[in-house]
Design brief:
Number of helices: 22
Shape: globular
Number of domains: 3
Length: 834
């Protein structure tokens, strides 16, 4: 027999870890986690390496689960029950100072300015706001509803190293940084426009301290910007998704207590961001820098309890032969079987967890975004094969406790927000980007109780939209995703580029599969209402509300828009797949009331024979339907040239189709259906002369582009172009090209119910939604391309005709802006085509 001595904090085995990266060279955290307090003494153990040695005593197993010193657990005289487990954990809780106050004092260099309300959370100071912010979700996801809005947080720092994170919901003009109380905020001046005020603007790739200078990288929607201030060294720096952008400012002035630097932001109209001063763990923490808001004391004990639960699950899995990733661990150490003890130990851990959480106010968000998600991802595993059974076991365990409802609702929102900020990483494909969070959410939502909690929460639409969001890479991101670029005649490596594109395509396919799964769960969900609704009503309502956001006055379908255009693309591809592959709803299944089966029969788009379509879908008098030219013109326009029988309920026709198995064409065959044909992304450029649009200020009929030239000439006169540049505040965004539809501000308050809301969702209705989504997305980009081209051409003409150098300079500035918009629009088309 070979006997080895090892330190339990240093054991490292070559196995797979269910963690964030999926694979690891060792299992260093198995017996001692970095996420929990180091409460156990580091004692060496003598353990047999021989496979035939008997199981260790149950006491040794409990010591491992609770991370206790060797031979510190004594078996109780009675059974090991929930009470015994909780007594062990309460003894451990004394080491975590659960009842203590915030240990950071005035001398630590940070102070929450208390204006008499006993404020303990870091938020934006209402009295500092210039302009107007509206809260989208909680107090820290804010959007500017004025032309230019600025605000400071209610906390200042004057020594030490501090940071906060900003997740970009839009990617337009935002100035993020630090400012003192002496920095004035106006409708034209914000963060970075005065002394002792420092900001980074990734839209213009500029740093601001009175005068702008080039700095950093262009940012994109979903980026996480780390704003760091090192008052010991007098430096301010910024990070983009954990990547250091360099020291932005040095030699910043020293200030005294209560006159320190405040986190501060300035946003142009429609810009939106999510601030994290420490209310939940940082996505990309920087070594040595502390959050502005101290984490709650309970979070350390909560992390310890959840790691205890994870170790319990590991020990239970040791008995399962299919748990291959514990094979080497099984050879190193054998534990007493826990078949009869798993229930009291697990329930004791959860009872202590929820009991302590109930007495700790304001800790739910931090724990959910941190240790709770870590537990679930470790159990479920971020890469396939996922451990569905173990995750179900955890969920069923937590659902027994009343406090679980708020925890799970917060979990869904957290997973949704993480999807929005998850970038594709080539080395982690195909399980990269939002996939780990989507896969986890999809399985959790298969439980009827969890789906019901999600549906009845106020954040349902917000989080559903987040799950369907894809983070779009910018120029720097694409360099990492596609390191080698090849074209015919190029000397670059074609194989390398092909490999990169194949890898990315596989990753996107995984994500789209989860989008379909999530939407299918929502389609099949039947809310427990009276009278009962039929499957599809919740999904219908969400799509209609999304249409309102796109069509309403709040939306500018652009890079700085408030509604992420990738949501439209995700909905479009989901519906296209359902209609092309065919599906039926099955009422079986343990988790939801019904489920969708794919590939059943011939898809709706490929059916032949007698076809019919309800005319009511196309002739509705809803304001957000009848102005969209999805039928070769708006409904009002068509009614002028085509007679329609209002009493006719449906139209019928004969349609041919190859629907036998040998010749049938679907998404799974080598030849793709016409709905998935690759389109020429330059079609909008080639046919720009025939493109039709409705100017944002016009209420008349559509004009072709050549008819608009005279109007453009007057609009782009020297006076108008010069004034647009001259009168614009230095910190404001360039005015966006408005959507080419009529303004529909009144739609925000419209009811989402219609004559079909009480019926099951039909394929014809999905087709109508799909066509609607196509025009809301594709038509916009084609129109914007055409308008940008016309503006470029008109500006070039004026540059050729002007002799004044100052006028030419301003015209060239305007031209550069129009050119940038056009290039961005074309890139959007290319990305979505891919």
């Amino acid at each position: 027999m070979e006997v080895i001595q090892f330190d339990r904090s240093r054991i490292c085995l070559d196995v797979i870890i269910p963690g964030r990266s999926g694979f690891s060279p060792g299992l260093a955290q198995l017996l001692s986690s970095r996420d929990e307090a180091k409460v156990s003494s580091q004692k060496s153990h003598l353990v047999s390496y021989h496979d035939e040695i008997g199981h260790q005593d149950i006491e040794r197993t409990l010591e491992h689960i609770f991370d206790l010193p060797h031979k510190s657990v004594v078996r109780p005289p009675g059974p090991i029950d929930v009470g015994f487990v909780r007594s062990v954990l309460r003894n451990q809780a004394r080491k975590f100072d659960l009842g203590g106050k915030d240990s950071r004092k005035y001398d630590d260099g940070v102070l929450i300015v208390d204006k008499g309300a006993g404020q303990t959370k870091v938020v934006l100071d209402d009295s500092s706001i210039c302009g107007k912010f509206k809260s989208i979700w909680g107090p820290l996801l804010v959007e500017s509803s004025a032309s230019f809005s600025s605000a400071r947080a209610n906390t200042c720092v004057w020594n030490g190293k501090w940071m906060y994170e900003v997740t970009l919901e839009t990617s337009g003009v935002q100035q993020l940084g630090w400012a003192t109380l002496s920095c004035p905020f106006t409708d034209q001046k914000g963060v970075g426009d005065s002394d002792d005020s420092y900001a980074f603007d990734g839209r213009r790739v500029t740093k601001w301290n009175n005068d702008p200078e080039q700095y950093g990288q262009m940012w994109a929607v979903g980026d996480v910007i780390g704003c760091c201030i090192n008052l010991d060294a007098g430096e301010i720096s910024f990070y983009r998704n954990g990547n250091f952008l360099g020291v932005a400012f040095d030699g910043i002035r020293k200030v005294g207590p209560r006159k320190g630097y405040y986190p501060a932001i300035s946003l142009s109209e429609g810009e939106r961001c999510h601030l994290n001063f420490g209310s939940h763990p940082f996505r990309y923490p920087v070594d040595g820098f502390n959050p502005i808001e101290a984490p709650p004391h309970f979070c350390m004990f909560a992390a310890y309890l959840l790691r205890c639960l994870f170790r319990l699950l590991e020990v239970q899995n040791l008995e399962k032969s299919e748990s291959a990733y514990f094979e080497k661990l099984r050879r190193v150490k054998k534990f007493a079987p826990l078949r009869e003890l798993f229930r009291p130990i697990s329930e004791g851990i959860c009872a202590e967890f929820f009991g302590a959480a109930e007495g700790s106010q304001g800790c739910s968000e931090y724990i959910t975004w941190g240790s709770f998600i870590t537990l679930l991802t470790d159990v479920f595993r971020v890469r396939e094969p996922h451990d569905f059974l173990c995750l179900d076991q955890v969920l069923e365990l937590f659902l027994q406790f009343p406090g679980c409802s708020s925890l799970l609702q917060e979990l869904i929102v957290a997973l949704s927000c993480m999807c929005k900020a998850a970038p594709l990483v080539l080395t982690e494909c195909p399980f990269s980007g939002p996939y780990p969070f989507l896969a986890l959410a999809c399985h959790i939502l298969r439980h009827k109780d969890v789906m019901h909690l999600w549906w009845k929460s106020e954040d349902f639409a917000f989080s559903f939209e987040g799950f369907l969001t894809m983070k779009i890479p910018n120029k720097q991101d694409l360099q990492y995703l596609v390191p080698s670029v090849w074209w015919p005649g190029s000397s670059e490596d074609e194989v390398s580029m092909t490999l990169s594109m194949t890898t990315l395509s596989d990753a996107i396919k995984k994500i789209e599969d989860k989008h379909r799964e999530l939407c299918s769960l929502v389609i099949c969900f039947v809310p427990p209402t009276s009278p009962p609704l039929l499957p599809g009503s919740v999904f219908r309502s969400f799509v209609q509300s999304s249409i309102l956001k796109v069509r309403g006055g709040d939306h500018r379908m652009a890079s700085s828009g408030t509604f992420n255009d990738t949501v439209l693309v995700s909905l479009y591809t989901v519906i296209l797949h359902l209609l092309s592959e065919g599906f039926s709803m099955d009422s079986s299944g343990p988790a939801s009331s019904s489920r969708i089966n794919y590939g059943t029969g011939v898809g709706f788009l490929h059916k032949g024979g007698k076809r019919r379509f309800p005319t009511q879908l196309l002739l509705r008098n809803d304001a957000y339907y009848n102005v969209i030219p999805r039928l070769g013109g708006s409904l009002n326009h068509l009614l002028m040239f085509h007679q329609i029988d209002a009493n006719e309920d449906e139209v019928q026709w004969d349609e041919g189709c190859m629907n036998d198995e040998e010749t049938r064409i679907t998404h799974t065959t080598a030849q793709k259906p016409c709905c998935c044909s690759i389109t020429d992304v330059t079609v909008g450029l080639r046919f720009k002369e025939n493109a039709k649009y409705i100017p944002s200020t016009s209420k008349g009929p559509c004009k072709s582009m050549h008819e608009k030239s005279a109007h453009i000439a007057s609009e782009c006169s020297v006076r108008s172009l010069s004034n647009e540049i001259e009168d614009k505040p230095i910190t404001s965004a360039q005015s966006e090209i408005e959507y080419g539809y009529q303004a529909l501000h009144h739609l925000e308050s419209m009811s989402m119910t219609n004559q079909f809301s009480s019926e099951a969702l039909r394929e014809e209705e999905l087709l109508d939604f799909m066509l609607l989504l196509y025009h809301l997305g594709a038509f916009y980009f084609v129109s914007q391309q055409s308008q940008s081209i016309s503006l470029l051409e008109e500006t070039d003409r004026q540059i050729r005709e002007k002799s004044c150098m100052e006028q030419v300079r301003r015209l060239k500035e305007a031209r550069n802006s129009y050119h940038e918009e056009l290039v961005d629009c074309v890139r959007h088309c290319v990305w979505y085509d891919f």
